[in-house]
Amino acid sequence: MALPFKKVKSSLTPGWYFMQGNEAAAEGAIAAGCRFYAGYPITPSSEVMGRMVQRLADVGGVFVQMEDEIGSVGALIGASWAGAKALTATAGPGISLMTEGIGYAVITETPCVIIDVQRAGPSTGQATRPGQGDVMQVKWGAHGDNEIVALAPWSVQEMYELTIKAFNFSERFRVPAFVLADEAVGHLRETLVISEEVEVYNRFKAPGLPPFGTDDPRGVPPMPAFGEGENLLVTGSTHDPQGFRKTADPAAHAKLTERLVRKVRDYKEEVIQTESYFLEDAEFGVVSFGFTARAAIQAVKTLRKEGVKIGMLRLVSIWPFAGEAVAELGQKCRAVYVPEMNRGQVAGEIRKYTTRPVIPIPKTNGEVFEPAEIVEAIRRNMP
Amino acid sequence: MKDHPEKKKKNAVIRINQNWCKGCYICLETCPKKVFDKSSEVSEKGVFPVVVARPEDCSSCLQCEMLCPDLAIDVKKGE
Amino acid sequence: MNEKIYQMINPQAFPTPFCPGCGHGILMNAVLRAILELEYDLKDMLFVSGIGCAAWIPSPHFKADTLHTLHGRAIAYATGAKLFNPKLKIMVISGDGDLSAIGGNHLIHAARRNMDLTVVCANNGIYGMTGGQVASTTPLGSRTSTTPKGNQEPPFDLCKLVEAAGATFVARQPVVTPIPLTRTLKRAIVHRGFSFIDVLSPCPTQFGRRNAFRTPHDMLVSLKNTCLSVEKARTMSPEDVKGKILVGEFVNQGEGGQS
Q1: Are A5-201 and A274-380 in the same CATH fold?
Q2: Burial of A6 (0-12, 13-18, 19+ CB in 10 A)
Q3: How many domains, chain B?
Q4: Stretch (H or E) spanning A150
Q5: Do C217 and B25 touch (CB under 8 A)?
Q6: What is the third-level CATH fold of A274-380?
Q7: A40, C134: Cβ pair inside 8 Å?
Q8: Chains B and A in direct contact, meaning 3 or more beta-carbon pairs closer than 8 angstroms
Q9: Which residues of C touch A68 (CB under 8 A)?
């Protein structure tokens, strides 16, 4: 289905750049039209904030360093309702603090983007080391049901491109969208190619129409802003399409909670993005995401050289989950291997979609995978 | 006016833990009597630590011991 | 190093992770000296800290019970420990961002309750550990990594904030004058009720380098010249006091008393 994207000129002069992942994400935000940043320092995300303070000054945007992450997510939501594409960057402990605000953004359908540069947890953990342990938290941290969007970059180029996509999805679906990066890709320096144009999606306006409900099958209402004369009733309580609180109305609550989930779930094909490597004749499959996929693809190539018919499915989007792609992988493969820098979060999700043996390859020592480790783990667990 | 011989002063004894000294030179620059010098040899920690060059000039003010951020200096007051 | 102080620390944790010339190291030195001079037993004490360079002062360096908590939450955790075991003598040692920004709410409520805690704020006017971002205490005009053109937001006067919230012992001392600092620390520890010390502690690495201070010593000299004791200030004209940072003891009420 064609979406009303707009092509705009890139904010950086087209060409090749050598940039840090966190900085590239900031550039992606600027390119997507982000003009508001509210954040709080937290390793390993602080470079995003450092870049945004300079770039927002260049483009006439607004920057504020808040007193904590709870304040940051609040400021994002306020700014989004004031009309801004709003960004923050944080890490696991910050997501924990923002979680209540994320839930508020879900029920008020506030577009906003949160970059989570994951680090080794739980809690304070190893602040300067990579991890991938926030996968479940970004989805299920807030109480209640939701369908947030989360994308996992594996390169500096993707830090740029997926941040743009995150903005687009958050505007398209009116949901908070996450860039699930990690310390490794955040602090990595690599080539970034900036092209002439960028596709951006902007929230749609329909003055006079209810902002919190719609009978349109896509289920996404228009997004007005404060100061447009709409007399907005933004509230975290359950509400009707106009925004009036309906805290004792079963029908209203059912309608809202169902629409909030279906507006993304029914259109998840627009978000889901995977990449396949050597899967055509594969008998064994690896599923990986983020920085880990870089080691995983090397492992797959090594095993192929030894004659093992193995391929890889890289999850570029994490949420909504690519259940069908995983099920399809399970159809052809005898086993599915899942290396991740956590104790098996994505592996557990994969088990919902296939009855094949799913073999987690967890690594939580605060270091990235080496291809040999993945090769070794696969060899040790061949059925 | 002194008409008896000066009693021999007992010097202050200043010790610097060369492993803990980070070469910030707060002691060296604060010392009112210029007791300290920078070592010409780099320490195991990769800095040029502080060495006690003129302990006989020390007035036992203890500023160095109190201001050292690394607790690396110990001064036994002189008499 | 002084043998008595050596008994109070975990030597295997030294040398400290602090930068060369870090004011927090000088504060650590002063805290240990204050406890030694008071002849307190570390066994009766609990040190609670949050997240940031300052929070590493007690943990893991003090040979005592230490509670290294979450960012901004030291005072909340200390409140729980104190309420259940009032015999513990609790010192909260943490940074200005930790205590007054993210932790601001817990700070004012503990002050309001006049909880018997000693809160030592290692104030370097910046978020050091994360790369030198602006803090709620950064002076106007200072350069930080998130105020590259100079900070436009007025900073807190932490002493006034805490006094207004209800603290019964409020003081400020710079690390460059270790003797008054140690004396004030002792009074704060002995005080029964909420005691707060704003300790001005320079950060040469993140603050100094961005604001044209070449050495740690330069920062200490500047600090000494900017600080003015509150008693002396009372005898001076307003023009002469302008631009100075007032130090000394501002509030000392209720029991606890002088030493």
Answers
A1: yes
A2: exposed
A3: 1
A4: strand A149-151
A5: yes
A6: Rossmann fold (3.40.50)
A7: no
A8: no
A9: 71-72, 101-102
CATH of the domain at B43: 3.30.70.20
Report domain C3-252's class.
alpha beta
| Other beta carbons within 10 Å of B32 | 10
Query: Is the CB of A65 less than 8 angstroms away from the CB of C134?
Result: yes
Let me know: does C220 contact B30? Beta carbons within 8 Å: yes
Q: How far is A58 from chain C (nearest CA, A)?
A: 13
Nearest C-alpha in B relative to C27: B69
Question: From CA A111, how far away is CA A249, in angstroms rounded?
Answer: 26
CATH class given for the domain over A5-201: alpha beta
- How far is residue C135's CA from residue C137's CA, in Å, rounded to a whole number? 5
The length of chain C is 259
Torsion of CA C76, C80, C85, C91, to 10 degrees: -10
Cβ count near C43 (within 10 Å): 8
**How far apart are the two ends of chain B, measured CA to CA in Å?**
20
B1 in a structural domain: no
Give a yes or no: residue B24 inside a domain. Answer: yes
User: What is the pTM (predicted TM-score) of this model?
Assistant: 0.93
Cα–Cα distances in Å, from A268 out to A216, A260, A352, C95, C219? Answer: 17, 13, 17, 45, 57
Domain ranges, ordered by start, for chain A: 5-201, 274-380
- C212 Cβ under 8 Å from any chain B Cβ: no
Task: Please name the amino acid found at residue A223.
Answer: M
CB environment C162-179: b (16+ within 10 A), e (fewer): bbebbbbbbbbbbbbbbe
Place of tokens 């000394």: C248
Does B6 reside within a domain?
no
**Would you say A61 and A37 are in contact if contact means Cβ atoms under 8 Å apart?**
yes
Structural domain span for residue B24: 13-76
Split at pLDDT 50, 70, 90, the class of A82 is very high
How do residues C205-245 score in pLDDT, each as one tens digit? 999 999 999 999 999 999 999 999 999 999 999 999 999 99
Q: What is the pLDDT of residues C20-61, one digit of tens each?
A: 999 999 999 999 999 999 999 999 999 999 999 999 999 999
CA-to-CA dists, residue A120 to A25, A39, C173, C215, angstroms: 20, 21, 38, 35
Residues 6+ apart with CB under 8 A from C30: B66, C175, C178, C181, C182, C185
